[in-house]
Amino acid sequence: MGELLNAIAIAGKSALGFQAVFYALLAIGLNMHFGYTGLLNFGQIAFAMLGGFGIAVSVTNWGLPFWLGVVIGVAASVVLSLLLGLPTLRLRADYLAIVTIAAAEGLRLLFRSVSATPITNGTQGISAFNGGFVRLSPWDTNRRFRLLGTTWGGGELWVTAVGWLLVAIFCLLVWLLVRSPWGRVVKAIREDEDAVRALGKNVYAYKMQSLVLGGVIGAFGGMVYAVATGSANPDQYQNANTFLAYAVLILGGAARVLGPVVGAIVLLFILQFTDTGLRLLIDNGIIPEGLLSSTDVAQLRFVLVGIGLMLLLVFRPQGIFGDRREVMLDAR
Amino acid sequence: MPAQAPAAEDAPRRLAQRALRGLPWEVGVAKPDPAIVVDDVTRTFGGLTAVSVDHLEIQRGGITGLIGPNGAGKTTLFNLLTGFDQPNTGTWSFNGRSLGKLAPHQVARLGVVRTFQLTKALSRLSVLQNMLLGAQGQSGESFLKALVPGTWRAQEKANTEKAMDLLRRFKLDAKKDDFAGTLSGGQRKLLEMARALMSDPEVVMLDEPMAGVNPALTQSLLGHVKDLREQGMTVIFVEHDMDVVRDISDWVVVMAAGRVIAEGPPESISQNQAVVDAYLGAHHDAPLTAEEEDQVLAEAQRAIAREAKRDGEVLRSDGTRADDERTTP
Ligand SMILES: Nc1ncnc2c1ncn2[C@@H]1O[C@H](COP(=O)(O)OP(=O)(O)OP(=O)(O)O)[C@@H](O)[C@H]1O
Ligand SMILES: [Mg+2]
Fold first, then answer.
1. Using alpha carbons only, what angle is made at residue B187 by residues B198 and B161, rounded to the nearest 5 degrees?
2. Looking at ligand 1, which residue's alpha carbon is closest to its atom 3?
3. Was domain B8-121+183-280 assigned CATH 3.40.50.300?
4. C-beta of B320 in contact with ligand 1 (< 6 A)
5. Do the beta carbons of residue A184 and residue A201 sit within 8 Å?
6. Which residues surround ligand 2, an ion (CB under 5 A)?
7. What is the full per-residue pLDDT of chain B (329 aa) written as tens digits?
């Protein structure tokens, strides 16, 4: 019983920790792209990588202050949106999907390549750039604090708190936007671009605005991740994260302001709980070692999540928050 | 908005019809007050010439019916005029302003709005949201102003009132909060038309607004289209039902194989040989009636008989050789 409570506490920490913030921010950006505007961005992680490396490179290599690093990270993600969007947003939706997926993989390979090593430090990655931020922590960074049954370092607590503040700010921003006439245009573009053009709206400009906004939100996700882990390594930014962010979005409910947030919390809870729980069962001999060893658990939990998502799509396609009527309309 | 109904009563009805009365019934004829002028517009898809219009003028304030067999190029012409497609050659203008290089949204902002042959209801938006989207010059549609509701709330309220007015006219007000995707096909046609009217357009281009609409609804749609004319709008519409065309058009333009083959008032069209050919031309390929079959058969037999006679002569003149062949073995 105590062990179970402990497993719940560990999963709870994961669900509220910086990783949940990371996925929530990625998914809020994707919600803007995919949920509201209908843009298929399959390379959201590239924006996050530019955010993380924006700070890391600026501070460590160029000796710039932390906050300037943030600005540079944002600027880099804006430039990436423009580069990806300019040629593709006039074309059919699939073109953006292809280009973003290629850009995410290509940028990661570029960042870890030998020729980029002077700037990105290649596969070693960059560390020790978050001092300027952690120093501001109101909590003692050398102490550990007990919270909800687990312990948190002071710096960790600080980064996570700021992360959730960012999540709140971006949720507010998205909420303000999608209930405005701007949001109406964007949602209409998701439904049928040509109808919107015929009504005198510059579809291309709206798609670009949406792409930039979602990308910037993703970049902030990458910054939180980099600052929380204290390192920026290209291999942290595998494109699998984009698809996990999509899972978060679908789990929570697309085109709902809080969908990505709840999705991130629930998904990370499940991932961590199945991990701790399965190890517990193996350690106690309830699952025989021959059937499943603790090294398999890390992979198996993703299989379980995959099955869970499939069941979700069968029985509740709108996700936790979505509107079933709305989702089923497409079936007509 | 409320001023329109009484004004319509006083206004002399069917001004355009009167203005067009004296015109000759010939292709490319100049109109007294053209809103849209098309010159030498061609559009080819590979080897197929979908549109090739030398000169066409559309009278302001009238209802112009655009008819023609399937594949005549009517929709393609609409696409070209509204910027949804680019022609190979040609120019066209609206109120004397060339629309050549404009994007679809720029054309719409000038006051030329269209509907689509395949209705484009924005399914996962409510009926009212669909309508509000049609309003022009909304400050809340800019990114930064959207974040400050105070800057657009009053305008939104005014637009909502206007939208509800239109929805009442189109008998859709009870559905205002339903998703547009739940409407029936005919209701979607109505919604698309009402939405286009939210922008107070000068020219409305309707691509088969009556297709798939039940007869009772067709009557009400026709009423709406006539209303538009009374409000001074220029209407161009594509329609296959000749009764409808005859009923509401002031002028009819007939296209076939990409060209304008005839234009004139509705009553001129059925007498026009080119039109009859264009429409019935298709029927020549259709299965023949028994009489026609007999005729064709008789014709063929006569032809064969003639051939046989000539062949016979040849044989006879070659008779010796034929005999040789017979005797050789
Ligand atoms: N995008 C395209 N690519 C290739 N051919 C096209 C394209 N659009 C139209 N066409 C061709 O151009 C011709 C005219 O088509 P259009 O849609 O304008 O006909 P229409 O007069 O509207 O016919 P309908 O009454 O059936 O709607 C057709 O032969 C069609 O096959
Ligand atoms: Mg057509």
1. 35
2. B45
3. yes
4. no
5. no
6. B 75, 117
7. 444 444 444 544 677 777 788 787 888 888 888 999 999 999 999 889 999 999 999 999 999 999 998 999 999 999 999 999 999 999 999 998 888 889 999 999 999 999 999 888 899 999 999 999 999 999 999 999 999 999 999 999 999 999 999 999 888 999 999 999 999 888 898 899 999 999 999 999 999 988 877 788 788 888 888 888 888 899 999 998 888 888 889 999 999 889 998 888 888 887 777 777 777 664 444 555 666 667 767 777 777 777 666 655 444 444 444 444 444 33
* pTM to 2 decimal places: 0.87
Rounded Cα gap, residues B253 and B264, in angstroms: 7
* Residue B49 near ligand 1, beta carbon < 6 Å: no
- Give B229's Cβ-side CA count (13 Å radius): 23
Cα dihedral A83, A86, A89, A91 sign: negative
* CA–CA distance, B263 with B327 (Å, rounded to integer): 73
- For the Cβ of B71 lying below 6 angstroms from any atom of ligand 1, the answer is yes
DSSP symbol at B126: B
Q: Which residue has the tokens 């281009």?
A: B205
Smallest CA–CA separation between A49 and chain B, in Å? 26
What was the ipTM of the complex prediction? 0.87
Sketch the domain layout of chain B as residue ranges.
Answer: 8-121+183-280, 291-324
Give which of A34, A81, A199 to mutate to test B binding, by max B Cβ within 10 Å: A199
**Pairing status of strand B203-207 against strand B112-114:** parallel
To the nearest 5 percent, what fractions of chain A are helix, strand and coil? 75, 5, 20
Tokens read off for A209: 């605005």
The set of long-range contacts for A72-78, using a CB threshold of 8 Å and a minimum separation of 24, is A73/A219, A73/A222, A73/A223, A74/A216, A74/A219, A74/A220, A76/A50, A76/A51, A76/A219, A77/A47, A77/A50, A77/A51, A77/A215, A77/A216, A77/A218, A77/A219, A78/A212, A78/A215, A78/A216
Task: Identify the CA nearest to A24 among candidates A205, A243, A189, A264.
Answer: A264
Beta bridge partners, B262, equal: B254
Amino acid at A258: L
